UniProtKB/TrEMBL annotation:
<dbReference type="Pfam" id="PF02788">
    <property type="entry name" value="RuBisCO_large_N"/>
</dbReference>
<keyword id="KW-0460">Magnesium</keyword>
<dbReference type="InterPro" id="IPR033966">
    <property type="entry name" value="RuBisCO"/>
</dbReference>
<keyword id="KW-0479">Metal-binding</keyword>
<protein>
    <submittedName>
        <fullName>2,3-diketo-5-methylthiopentyl-1-phosphate enolase</fullName>
    </submittedName>
</protein>
<dbReference type="GO" id="GO:0015977">
    <property type="term" value="P:carbon fixation"/>
</dbReference>
<feature type="domain" description="Ribulose bisphosphate carboxylase large subunit C-terminal">
    <location>
        <begin position="151"/>
        <end position="420"/>
    </location>
</feature>
<feature type="domain" description="Ribulose bisphosphate carboxylase large subunit ferrodoxin-like N-terminal">
    <location>
        <begin position="14"/>
        <end position="132"/>
    </location>
</feature>
<comment type="similarity">
    <text>Belongs to the RuBisCO large chain family.</text>
</comment>
<dbReference type="InterPro" id="IPR036376">
    <property type="entry name" value="RuBisCO_lsu_C_sf"/>
</dbReference>
<dbReference type="InterPro" id="IPR000685">
    <property type="entry name" value="RuBisCO_lsu_C"/>
</dbReference>
<dbReference type="GO" id="GO:0016984">
    <property type="term" value="F:ribulose-bisphosphate carboxylase activity"/>
</dbReference>
<dbReference type="InterPro" id="IPR020878">
    <property type="entry name" value="RuBisCo_large_chain_AS"/>
</dbReference>
<dbReference type="GO" id="GO:0000287">
    <property type="term" value="F:magnesium ion binding"/>
</dbReference>
<dbReference type="InterPro" id="IPR017443">
    <property type="entry name" value="RuBisCO_lsu_fd_N"/>
</dbReference>
<dbReference type="InterPro" id="IPR036422">
    <property type="entry name" value="RuBisCO_lsu_N_sf"/>
</dbReference>
<dbReference type="Pfam" id="PF00016">
    <property type="entry name" value="RuBisCO_large"/>
</dbReference>
Amino acid sequence: MDSVMYALPENIRNKAFVIASYYIKLNKGADILKKASALAVGQTIGTWIPIPGITEEIREKYMGKVVSVFDVPALDLSTQVDTEDREYIIQIAYPSVNFGGDFPLLLTSLLGNDASTSAQVKLLDIEFPADYVENFSGPQYGSGGIRKLTGVSERPLLLNMIKPCTGLTPEEGAKIFYETALGGVDFIKDDELFGNPAYSKPWNRVKRYKQAAQAAYEKTGKKALYFVNVTSGAGEILDNVKRAEDAGADGIMLNFAAVGYSVLKQVAEVSRVPVLGHGAGTGMYYEGTASGMSSPLAAGKLARLAGADIVMINTPYGGYPLQYQKYIQTISQLTLPWYELKPSMPSIGGGVHPGMVEKYVREAGKDIVLAAGGAVQGHPRGAKAGARAMRQAIEIVMEGQDFAEAAREKEELSEALKCWSYVKD
């Protein structure tokens, strides 16, 4: 057994290796140990043919190591094999010195050298040692900082996004912002499709929307915070961040799947305000069954590592066929203790309306942001009533009242439930 090529988990964990877990499917006659070894070499020091210059020192310091190979299902006897295809979970340890705290090289090393390795794999998870995670600051505010910023400590936070998604000038959007803010939302953000168009620059929106926020505050005593979408080309994003913050933005929003995790990391490191990472487009990472990466990794762990204080995630309830298990695992990746990184606050999007509040709180807890779009803007009596209906639903749930009974006493909520039914289970 080649002690450089293979290693036991106990001799790798908490050392200078990142451990990647993959799913791979091969035909029955393929040698999985050979395939795993080729992946470990090809993603680190090797090519598809032997080359001169690879010394034992290079192999020891820079080559990947095969840590584990698991059959799925668990097969130990040749007589148990009765299918043409075989499925495996394999774990490869990669020396972190190969990529350091560099997201592009990390992902290239773990997933991006298919032409050389000829391995079609799906990256399920990445296990990072503590020393490696110290290369990343993670969320600057985190859930606790977001709570402190809003002054709200004991209930889910409420977010709405300006609709229609595109086409609004700053002046037009400010009118919608004002009506929505009157209903008592905690945050208002841009839609993920609305970033840096010529007719509505982020900093111009900030100026108009902050005026609308102040006008609503003077009437209600409740100030809605604005997260402005600065998503754009790499050469423009940092300038967008600075100009938006100088204009008074309360938070920055970024479509991290589109711009990349390294851009999210850079924005989180320089921003003076919280960063909302929107998962729009993460499906292109995880929708393949035999390639890409898992949704909890793409939409959860890596976004938190990169520094998003709030992360907008999908649910199984809004028409998108996300598995319930993956939804819960993504929330876990964002919120459970992870070395010294602060937790990111999950923002639940997709199928959010007053009748779903109790279900979301039961499944995900109170430390979440409920991102209600159409249920606010599409309320029969307008955005103010839609926001009030959501707040009423949240209050009923947090007070532990019988939802159906208490809702009958709330005018806006009762009307909302005629459009969107109460979901108990």
